[in-house]
């Protein structure tokens, strides 16, 4: 006697590949998104008309106690070093938030 097996129900399409694609897109957009605060109004940055690239600006550091540091100069020697630098290159100031 031969017993026939009941016919199998067809399986539906698997949605796992679609879920994988969605997560890959989510990761892609999270990694490529700009995470910065927008400007409060539109700005047009200036164009450079120089043939040479600008170097990194010199940085004047100011500690929470008011100590100054610039290049190799520390303390009051910073003022003399800055006076020799005036008008030649930009100087960036980085101060402690406690000031």
Automatic annotation (TrEMBL):
It is found in: Cell membrane. GO terms for cellular component: plasma membrane. It comes from Paracoccus liaowanqingii. The keyword Membrane applies. It comes from the Bacteria. This is Biopolymer transporter ExbD. InterPro entries: ExbD. The keyword Transcription does not apply. Belongs to the ExbD/TolR family. Keywords: Cell membrane, Membrane, Protein transport, Transmembrane, Transmembrane helix, Transport. GO terms for molecular function: transmembrane transporter activity. It is a single-pass membrane protein; Single-pass type II membrane protein. Pfam families: ExbD (PF02472). One of its GO terms (biological process) is protein transport.
């Amino acid at each position: 006697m031969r017993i026939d097996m009941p016919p199998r129900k067809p399986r539906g399409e698997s949605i796992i590949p679609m879920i994988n694609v969605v997560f890959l897109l989510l990761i892609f957009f999270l990694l490529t998104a700009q995470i910065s605060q927008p400007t409060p109004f539109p700005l047009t940055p200036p164009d450079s008309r120089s043939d040479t690239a600008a170097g990194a600006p010199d940085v004047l550091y100011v500690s929470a106690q008011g100590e100054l540091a610039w290049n190799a100069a520390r303390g009051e020697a910073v003022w003399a070093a800055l006076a020799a630098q005036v008008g030649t290159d930009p100087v960036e100031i980085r101060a402690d938030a406690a000031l």
